[in-house]
């Protein structure tokens, strides 16, 4: 299963490292990533593969929500099929 992780918030040191650390902890493989900084706002989108993940998707979502709170940023985890369904016209 694949998923999309988005991160939005004030730019600060270590954002990519912290999100990547959670992925490594849960055995989530990062397949693609794009990031940019727009007027001091950090924006990142990751496509990840959960086929070897050690926990259920609901628990993964909770891990990233907690990380977002800790960093003062919005961190969202969405399964790819949900993401695709939300963005169909």
Could you characterize the architecture of this molecule?
This protein is an alpha+beta fold. Helix content is 37%, strand content 38%. It has 3 helices and 4 strands. The protein has a 4-stranded antiparallel sheet with strand order 2-3-1-4. Helix 1 runs antiparallel to helix 2 (57-71). The longest helix has 15 residues, at 57-71. The relative contact order is 0.29.
Keywords:
89 residues; alpha+beta; 37% helix
Low-confidence residue ranges: none
Whole-angstrom Rg: 13 Å
Choose one word for the global shape.
globular
Question: In what range is the share of β-strand residues?
Answer: 35-45%
What value does the average pLDDT take? 92
Order of helices and strands: EHEEHEH
Structural class: alpha+beta
* Strand segment count: 4
Map the helices and strands:
Blueprint: E1 2-10, H1 15-25, E2 29-38, E3 41-49, H2 57-71, E4 74-79, H3 80-86
Antiparallel strand pairs: 1-3, 1-4, 2-3
The gist of it:
This protein is of the alpha+beta class.
């Amino acid at each position: 299963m694949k998923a999309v992780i988005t991160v939005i918030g004030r730019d600060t040191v270590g954002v990519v490292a912290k999100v990547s650390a959670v992925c490594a902890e849960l055995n989530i493989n990062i397949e693609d990533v794009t990031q940019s900084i727009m007027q001091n706002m950090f924006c990142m989108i990751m496509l990840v593969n959960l086929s070897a993940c050690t926990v259920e998707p609901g628990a993964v979502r909770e891990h990233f929500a907690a990380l977002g709170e800790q960093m003062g940023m919005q961190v969202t985890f969405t399964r790819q099929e949900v993401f695709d369904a939300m963005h169909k016209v």
